[in-house]
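User: Okay, second chain of the day. Same drill as before: sequence in, structure tokens out.
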Amino acid sequence: MSAVPRPLGDDWRFCPRCGAPLEPRLEGGLPRPACSRCDFVFFANMGVGVAAVIDDDAGRVLLIQRGPGHFGVGLWCLPCGYVDWGEDLRDAAAREVLEEAGVEVEVGDVVQIAVNRHDPDRPTVGIWFSARLVDPRPEPRAGDDAVAVGWFDPAAPPPLAFPTDRPVLAALVARRRV
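Assistant: Same drill. Structure tokens below.
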């Protein structure tokens, strides 16, 4: 049985806004770090990540191999990353593909939404979008936190970094059969 992660912020002792001591306060049915001086209340929210599902005319899917210093180093995943504060979700997905695979994409519809719990201390909400290459001529190339990039049969992917990518690949395989 996996351990229940500590709530984010439960070790905070001082208010990040005014520096006064924090005390637990019941807000939204849960005890949360709160400041009696400035009324700051810390709500632990999950981060948001996006991924792009890019397939070619041969039915292959574009995957990147994770580099050193990143979760799942050496394993493969769909191009993905966190959404920056104030950034549009589709813009974030296109940015991540450009940074990790060096190609421009047009981002389409939502393919999947799921909670990622691969790192129990940092769960995230993941949103997978379909995407297509703006120009299919340039070869993808590894960049940013990727060390390799390649086209793979979604029915036989290399070892995956994120278990939440598996249902997306399975849906690609099922779509081919229709």
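The beta strands are 22-27, 30-35, 47-54, 61-66, 76-77, 80-82, 105-116, 124-133, 146-152.

User: Thanks, on to the next one.
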